[in-house]
Amino acid sequence: MTSKSPSASPEFSVREFFARFPNDDACLAHIMEVRFGGTRFVCASCGKESTHHKLAARRTYVCANCGHHVNPTANTILHDTRTPLVSWFYAMYLFCTTRHGVSGKELQRQLGVTYKTAYRIGQHIRDLMSKAQGFDALLAGHIELDEAYVGGRRSGGKRGRGAPGKTIVMGLAERNGRMKAVVIPNVKADTLREVVLKNVEKGATVSTDELYSYGLLTGDGFKHGRVKHGAKEYAYYNYRAGETFHVNTVEGFWKLFKASVRSTHIQISGKHMQRYLDEFTFRASNRGRVNGMFDLLVGAL
């Protein structure tokens, strides 16, 4: 791969994007590369390794040996789409390069499509981000846990945890690593414990605030440290464990997420909250490799 490819370059500018993907044929060739390793591979029909040539004006490649048709976009969100592939790729690029997310109205303006189409593209890309994350892998090392309340308002426009319509979410941040966030029904001990056991490797070190519901973690074999925000304690070093306990990383994530909801999306319903959480945790987990993010999304097709 040349030095101008997104995987090799530390930055992937808009100019570089359109230089690499000037038209639908270039996008289709990239999907072909990701799915089949190029245009020369073993044909599923004749069983022979042969070169596949693209048909003019169609999103189809043909086996040079037997004439079998291969559609690179089959069984993907791009199958039968009437929106240009360049628009889909550019939308994925926007999702990878932003910090605060991309609204449907912004996609509508950038892509020149209807709002309905822009909204659908955005939701499909969020699903791709969820698929590309690899949620089966457990978080390990030192994990920060913190719950938050998103959305909703008190009567009179006041905000707060007691406001109706809020969605409860829980974040799990691996120190200098991956990030996960899930919607939860409540902050009871059994609920939080279930999320931790499902997502965190046994024996890991865990930082939380003083919420009583986290008290069961020590009994499950985790090295558990609490910071007492009520006493204005935000970090402390435990000499016996040799660890600094705090939840600053995950709290910083929630600060960015809430600010992004207010500024970019205005409001997110609880029904779609998990999609948006997956979008933001995907970027948080892959920060520092914007180009890698884009290739992960294309690979998730």
TrEMBL record:
Domain ISXO2-like transposase: 138-285
Residues of the signal peptide: none
Gene source species: Erythrobacter ramosus
PANTHER family: DDE_TNP_IS1595 DOMAIN-CONTAINING PROTEIN (PTHR47163), SI:DKEY-17M8.2 (PTHR47163:SF2)
NCBIfam families: transpos_IS1595
Name recorded for this polypeptide: IS1595 family transposase
InterPro entries hit by this protein: IS1016-like_transposase, Tnp_ISXO2-like, Transposase_Zn_ribbon
